[in-house]
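Severity: low
Component: inverse-folding endpoint
Summary: output formatting inconsistent between runs
Steps to reproduce: submit the following structure tokens with default settings.
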């Protein structure tokens, strides 16, 4: 019997906290290394100082400040304020990032390969429009869409994360439409360090632990350096929801009393409601023939037939009151994934001459996730002579009945699971240095890099639709049958004529009635293996060729070659015939050749111009140009004004070009905008389009930075931004197609038909095209204030640091050229549905020589469930598909508080830290949504509640 409901935690419970304690012992063994490393450190000081390269520009020049807004998070910030042992969870708290995919919100990414990854999404413009870099270089994607999984980075070596919030394609190439997130490694780390931590929620679930270490040592008088790092992390999954906030029956119901003229709203937001047309042991939704009304007959424990008690209000799928709590789909879903990751990183460098350092890097990362993707909810039909139906209801109740339609959440079947494994390896060789050119310092670098990700996208316990159809069609065997079984034996009807088909009849009427052998026969574990390859070579030169009366003119030039490839394998039996997955292998490749030039020209009177241009040639879509023009002006020391105008691009990725077909299943919303499709199930198929061309984006940012001399340590910046994307690559998915069809557009109705497999109600066809326009506007705010407390208390060695970041999103408009564009800002309904008006994060850190305390406040503003709704309770206008009416459209915002305490200790001659972290200190609920399933916003809120983490860090020099 397949049953993964119980996930054992014995190893973690016994050994997770032991990892933290092991660090205490290991640090003593590091003492000798610390003494050895100290000697060559002095030699290293004679070497050239590491160049300061700021993300967002290729110019290397002391004192240059890019006109593009930049947010930097230091290693100290990460250590003191990260809510988990995964750096992506910390970075995604920054307000400029919105709508990123994480393990907790990718539960239903069953067929796309996205489940379990950690990505970055600037401005909620889409993750494919955010360029993620590691040390200023691209990294191979972890999905066919090219998304880089932050889990593949050596997190123990990250010394800072830099976020450029503005177009940067002229500097870095394709995909930097919304900006760049660059993870910077401590490549010259000296000594030994080790970190270990463990955590759990206050509900006793979500247990996790991690362990990481790094060793770095100079040699040959400081000319050479070797660095090795490794890490291992584990997190228990949470596969059933037992949180109180999920059991309230918070739903949107179609008002059964609504008419176009009676002034009532068409939709009602209610509590104490549930889905009636699918129960754990199945429920009869409708019938054909017969005098006895069977609608509402459901099958309980042991197959006992009972009558469902409908509540005060009932639509086609939900009811208020009555037996609303029978449906269990809101409980049998997951909150978090089981996650295991491990990785190693190595780097060797040697300075052959003052102008030439060569290096090589290699890394390997392995990540595996397991997640509950929800119950096997389905609709199915039984004929009147079905053996199990006859047993449950008796022949008298079925006189004249030819068939019944049922809905089920299938309590006897194991829930669906994502169980993906990813292996990523990167190899880099390079060289660089500085020398004199035109009488000034010039900096150069060249590198070649190969990256490869191998994915095994495994789905567990997935329904084979043809076998399920065979097993469901159970009848009593007649006398003298071909099977040779006794008359009255329950068998699969098709087996009577095909005795070798192996079918085992399955009873779907009740809880605890299914034959385990039948369950095993109808379930399978389809999978897809994919290989993503990335080959990159680049060269860059930054120099100061001449000067004008206003100062030195700096120039950076360079070029890059990149090749992206995908190949795959799917066994024939897994390419079709399954309720989800239906994977098909994808094959394809493209290459890119590009060259750029960037310059910084002082204009005098405190003004400086920064411009860049890049020419890019794609093997699939031809040549495109990108550019940037920026200006900074500092009229006085306290104020700096900045602005940038850029043209950026995003080329179609491997998935959009070559996808051979990806299928997904889901359920349409119950809202009235979906018309006859409301509450129905669907299967969707997407294929690639080789005719796609690059998207083009125009970005304008205007801002100011205030650093008043009368208030030392204070800094404030404000930046207004606007990005317009044309020829945006997009597609209409099932929800859009159903709504447009409901509005009367026949071309959309042609794309949605009855599911020919019969497992779902509808089948929907979709492919990407360059047809959309996207516009995003907003304002970023950032303020920080650091106060050394010796200014207040004599001889104090402490300091107080305050920092706040916030983004006020003003507009996020997608115009598909068909429907009326809807601004999704303020729509708090989830990852792809909208962006809150405000996302904010505040922190305060009190730091002393012996300990530090950090407090973080983070959250989003309140908003709407859907910006298309017209809110009214009486005298409502006629509801339309484009603007349905509803009695309440308010969704609360949220505010979470995190607390961290770090004690600074000495062990041997080593610096150490003991830390304790509480996330969601006051155990605030997530943002609740009036809908079935999870009923919460899993992207902008905390699903787990209060959580604790404790750990140790040690470092020798």
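Observed output (run 2 of 3):
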């Amino acid at each position: 019997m397949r049953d993964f409901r119980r996930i054992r935690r014995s190893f973690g419970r016994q050994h997770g906290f032991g990892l933290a304690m092991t660090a205490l012992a290991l640090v003593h063994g590091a003492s000798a290394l610390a003494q050895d490393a100290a000697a060559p450190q002095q030699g290293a000081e004679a070497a050239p100082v590491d160049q300061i390269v700021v993300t967002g520009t290729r110019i290397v020049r002391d004192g240059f400040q890019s006109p593009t807004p930049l947010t930097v998070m230091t290693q100290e910030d990460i250590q003191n304020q990260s809510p988990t042992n995964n750096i992506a969870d910390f970075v995604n708290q920054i307000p400029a990032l919105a709508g990123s995919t994480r393990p907790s919100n990718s539960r239903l990414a069953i067929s796309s390969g996205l489940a379990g990854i950690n990505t970055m999404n600037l401005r909620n413009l889409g993750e494919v429009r955010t360029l993620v870099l590691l040390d200023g270089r691209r990294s191979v994607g972890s999905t066919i869409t090219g998304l880089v999984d932050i889990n593949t980075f050596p997190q123990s070596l990250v010394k800072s994360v830099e976020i450029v919030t503005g177009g940067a394609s002229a500097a870095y190439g394709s995909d930097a439409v919304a900006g760049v997130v660059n993870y910077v490694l401590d490549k010259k780390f000296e000594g030994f360090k080790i970190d270990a931590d463990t955590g759990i929620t206050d509900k006793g679930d979500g247990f996790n632990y991690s362990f990481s270490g790094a060793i770095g040592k100079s040699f040959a008088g400081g000319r050479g350096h070797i660095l090795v790092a490794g890490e291992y992390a584990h997190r228990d999954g949470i596969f059933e929801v037992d949180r109180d906030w999920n059991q309230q029956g918070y739903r949107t119901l179609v008002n059964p009393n609504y008419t176009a003229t009676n002034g009532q709203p068409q939709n009602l937001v209610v509590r104490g409601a549930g889905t009636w047309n699918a129960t754990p042991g199945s429920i009869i939704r409708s019938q054909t023939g017969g005098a006895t009304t069977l609608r509402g007959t459901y099958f309980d424990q042991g197959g006992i037939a009972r009558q469902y008690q409908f509540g005060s209000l009932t639509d086609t799928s939900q009811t208020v009151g009555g037996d609303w709590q029978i449906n269990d789909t809101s409980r049998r879903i997951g909150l978090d994934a089981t996650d295991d990751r491990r990785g190693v990183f190595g780097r060797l460098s040697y300075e052959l001459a003052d102008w030439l350092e060569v290096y090589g890097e290699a890394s390997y990362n392995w990540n595996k996730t397991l997640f509950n993707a929800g119950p096997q909810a389905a609709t199915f039909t039984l004929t009147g002579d079905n053996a199990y139906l006859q047993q449950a209801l008796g022949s008298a109740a079925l006189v004249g009945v030819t068939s019944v339609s049922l809905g089920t959440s299938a309590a006897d079947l194991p829930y669906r699971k994502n169980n993906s494994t990813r292996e990523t390896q990167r190899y880099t060789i390079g060289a660089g240095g500085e020398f004199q050119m035109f009488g000034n310092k010039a900096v150069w670098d060249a590198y070649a890099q190969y990256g490869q990700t191998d994915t095994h996208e495994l789905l567990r316990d997935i329904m084979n639709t043809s076998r399920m159809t065979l097993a469901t069609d159970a009848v009593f065997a007649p006398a003298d049958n071909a099977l040779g079984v006794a008359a009255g034996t329950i068998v699969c009807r098709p087996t009577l004529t095909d005795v070798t088909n192996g079918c085992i009849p399955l009873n779907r009427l009740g809880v605890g009635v299914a034959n385990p052998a039948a369950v095993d026969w109808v379930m399978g574990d389809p999978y897809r293996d994919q290989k993503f390859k990335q080959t990159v070579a680049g060269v860059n030169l930054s120099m100061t060729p001449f000067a004008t009366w206003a100062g030195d003119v700096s120039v950076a030039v360079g070029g890059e070659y990149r090749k992206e490839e995908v190949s795959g394998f799917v066994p024939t039996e897994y390419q079709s015939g399954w309720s989800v997955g239906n994977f098909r292998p994808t094959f394809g490749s493209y290459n890119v050749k590009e060259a750029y030039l960037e310059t910084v020209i002082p204009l005098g009177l405190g003004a400086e111009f920064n411009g860049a241009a890049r020419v890019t040639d794609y093997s699939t879509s031809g040549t495109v140009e990108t550019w940037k023009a920026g200006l900074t002006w500092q009229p006085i020391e306290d104020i700096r004004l900045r602005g940038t105008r850029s043209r950026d691009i995003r080329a179609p990725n491997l998935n959009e070009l070559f996808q051979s077909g990806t299928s997904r299943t889901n359920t349409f919303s119950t809202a009235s905008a979906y018309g006859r499709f409301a509450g129905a199930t669907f299967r969707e198929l997407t294929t690639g389009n080789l005719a796609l061309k690059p998207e083009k984006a125009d970005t304008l940012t205007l801002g100011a930075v205030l650093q008043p001399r009368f208030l030392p340590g204070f800094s404030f910046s404000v930046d207004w931004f606007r990005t317009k994307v044309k020829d945006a690559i997009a597609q209409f998915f099932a929800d859009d197609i159903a709504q447009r069809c409901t509005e009367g557009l026949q071309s959309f109705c042609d794309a949605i038909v009855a599911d020919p497999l019969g497992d779902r109600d509808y089948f929907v066809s979709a492919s990407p095209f360059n047809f959309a326009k996207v516009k995003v506007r907003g304002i970023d705010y950032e303020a920080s204030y650091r106060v050394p407390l010796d200014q207040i208390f004599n001889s104090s060695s402490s300091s107080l640091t305050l920092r706040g970041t916030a983004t006020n999103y003003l507009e996020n408009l997608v115009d598909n050229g068909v429907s009326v564009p809807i601004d999704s800002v303020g729509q708090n309904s989830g990852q792809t549905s909208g962006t809150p008006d405000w996302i904010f994060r505040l922190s305060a850190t009190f730091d002393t020589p012996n300990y530090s305390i950090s407090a973080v406040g983070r959250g989003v503003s309140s908003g709407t469930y859907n910006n298309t709704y017209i809110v009214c309770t009486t005298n409502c206008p006629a509801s339309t598909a484009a603007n349905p009416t509803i009695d309440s459209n308010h969704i609360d915002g949220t505010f979470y508080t995190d607390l961290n305490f770090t004690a600074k200790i000495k062990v041997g001659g080593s610096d150490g830290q003991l830390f304790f972290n509480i996330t969601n200190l006051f155990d605030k609920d997530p943002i609740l949504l009036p809908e079935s399933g999870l009923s919460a916003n899993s992207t902008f809120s905390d699903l787990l509640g209060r959580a604790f983490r404790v750990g140790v860090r040690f470092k020798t020099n």
